[in-house]
Amino acid sequence: MSGRLRCYSFHSVKGGVGKSTLSVVTALKLARKPGAQVTLIDMDLTGTSLADVLPLEAPAWSHVEASERLNLLQKPDGFRSLEETRDAMEERDEAARKALEENPEGPESRMARGVPFLNDYLLFATPDWDAQQDVPVASLLWRVQGLAHESLRVIPSSALPSDLERGIPVIFDENHSGFLEGRLEYLLDSLVPDASGDEAVVVVDTPPTIPGLSRSVLSLALRLSRKEKQPLSEDGMMPERLRNAEVQWTAFLVSTMDRQDLRAAARWLSLVNEEEAHHIRFLINRARSGDEQQLKDLLSQALGYEPNPLINNPLWVKEERTWELFRTVGEPIIPEGPLPFLEVE
Length: 345
Ligand SMILES: Nc1ncnc2c1ncn2[C@@H]1O[C@H](COP(=O)(O)OP(=O)(O)OP(=O)(O)O)[C@@H](O)[C@H]1O
Ligand SMILES: [Mg+2]
Hints:
Elements: E1 4-11, H1 19-31, E2 38-42, E3 56-57, E4 59-60, E5 78-79, H2 82-102, H3 118-122, E6 142-144, E7 152-155, H4 161-171, H5 177-189, E8 199-205, H6 213-225, H7 240-244, E9 246-255, H8 259-269, H9 274-277, E10 280-287, H10 291-302, H11 309-312, E11 315-318
Parallel strand pairs: 1-8, 1-9, 2-7, 2-8, 9-10, 10-11
Antiparallel strand pairs: 3-6, 4-5, 6-7
Helix pairs in contact: 5-6
């Protein structure tokens, strides 16, 4: 038996409800625990990046210039400074744009340069990639500048226009969602601790709207949460460490008190079956006083929902200045006190 994986993912129908904020706070909070090993995965490939809100330092390969190709199959041997990271991101974008202009279909247009993003792993952006040798996870792990502890690593997505352009055909195509889910599954496999008894925490931020990437994450969550873990394809294959690991996953469907959002979220939740309901929590963020009563009225009168414990008993996070960590500069300040949506802290 390998170690344990404790996963949290944040999903929503509408954008801007607080998924990234909740993901970051969860990861930072859990990373404070002695001996913690936390990885924050930014699955929002649709145009925003945690690298733009957190002071993240990218892994580096010495003797490799920012404009040169990265061979992600080789493990990195250090980290770039924050400034170097920012510069390398721009160089990556420039080089990719040039390659796209020259030959949009050519392999050069898909190469990882400068800094590695989750996009590169999901979309095989490195030369010599084959089924026998996957990218080691160390090639993707960025560190947070100024954090006293080394217990948190982040795998950011790219918000560079060139990466978005290259990813669009895959990211927004539901036919690829199984493929992306499979890649994420392999990534999780490499985060499973070796020793039984050890635990790793994985926090996954997803883009708004359920279909697509968010559903890929949710589907993986539910497959891994079954008593008998369910493989992605009919051939029954599942990466070995993950298959042997104990996986606990809580997927949060986040909404605000906005009625469109609530109604849409409640529709999705009403599709959840009893077994799945153990792994999904409804979370209302940016709540104000009086919202609990208002929600009851809305659900029973305006939305006409039958009693459903998943919908009727949400978790609440208040609208508070302390949660506005993306408006501050530098190391994010974690709200004090226990997080109302984490059972274990
Ligand atoms: N509980 C809260 N109280 C006050 N402000 C909040 C709270 N939660 C989130 N915010 C603010 O709401 C805004 C949107 O948050 P965030 O970016 O986390 O949403 P998101 O769901 O990740 O958005 P997107 O769907 O675009 O990825 C941010 O400015 C954030 O600071
Ligand atoms: Mg977000």
